[in-house]
User: Fold this.
Amino acid sequence: MKVSTKSRYGVAAMLDIAQHCNDGPVALRNVAERQQVSEHYLEQLMSSLRNAGYVRSIRGAQGGYVLAKDPATITVGDIVRAMEGPIAPVDCLLAEKGPANPYCGKSEQCVRRNIWLKMGESIASALDSISLASLCTDLQPSKEVEERGEQV
Amino acid sequence: MKVSTKSRYGVAAMLDIAQHCNDGPVALRNVAERQQVSEHYLEQLMSSLRNAGYVRSIRGAQGGYVLAKDPATITVGDIVRAMEGPIAPVDCLLAEKGPANPYCGKSEQCVRRNIWLKMGESIASALDSISLASLCTDLQPSKEVEERGEQV
DNA sequence: TCTTATTCCGAGTAATTTAATCGGATTTAC
DNA sequence: GTAAATCCGATTAAATTACTCGGAATAAGA
Assistant:
């Protein structure tokens, strides 16, 4: 029940890019340095985020990544789904309901299925309620402190 | 972000025991058969549940497991925690807050930590809201149908 | 007392998933 | 032309999960 590094690094990278978007495209090398993660590994993650339409990449020298959407419209849930696929604590939630379901076939009557359904919904609702934009404003105060040269 | 088989089987076993508690101690052999899981594997899970105080075991022939508490006071969250430890999507939530935290040291000021904190809290709240007793009553209607000989 | 049914326990292993790593191709600013 | 980037696919290493196995201890019932 841990969140994978994909999701954690993905969120960290998106937040990093959002924070530095005023200085032009953000190169992965810098993200990797600031967030202390492997640049090569980040590459993989970014390709998922790009395919999902959350960032746009600019190749070549001075290139990098920029947000492809308003940060207010990108949620942590979106990022997690881009990194890991649908939020579903058990596989039977993904199969279509009814007799075709290869798992138990009982679909929504299954009380155990409903446990994990509820769990998944509450995770999604929590993560979807957090936008990149809100994370950036939460980060703002400490950034000001930092600019004054104080220790964080 | 999948739930482990430990948690799934653990919940299934507890529910099975709760349902069959009127017929005396419930042997794992029967649970394993009904739930279609390895008896040996279940053994391991039951020892966690016993140590956590949710079931009591009776050894020897005609032995088995019985609930150690009122099913209304046992939640799915309790079972999951017994199987997997604290519900914490990231490890830094487990470390004590403040400078001693070996992860980022920033404790509650860390915006990313707060994401996963919120996620963990919403999982816990969802799972803690479901008691074994409520699952049993949800299961009741289909049981009646079953007893009338209808197909479930 | 013997047999059988059961829990208990710890060690070992197989399978899967996660988390990277690596090498090189492609693109573009300067 | 060169350096700084992204892009892409393959491979590998590490960790976790999901079991399996063998046998000891316990207790009921004949």
Observations:
- The mean pLDDT of chain B is 90.
- The longest helix of chain B spans residues 111-128.
- Helices of chain B lie at 5-19, 28-35, 39-51, 76-84, 111-128, 132-147.
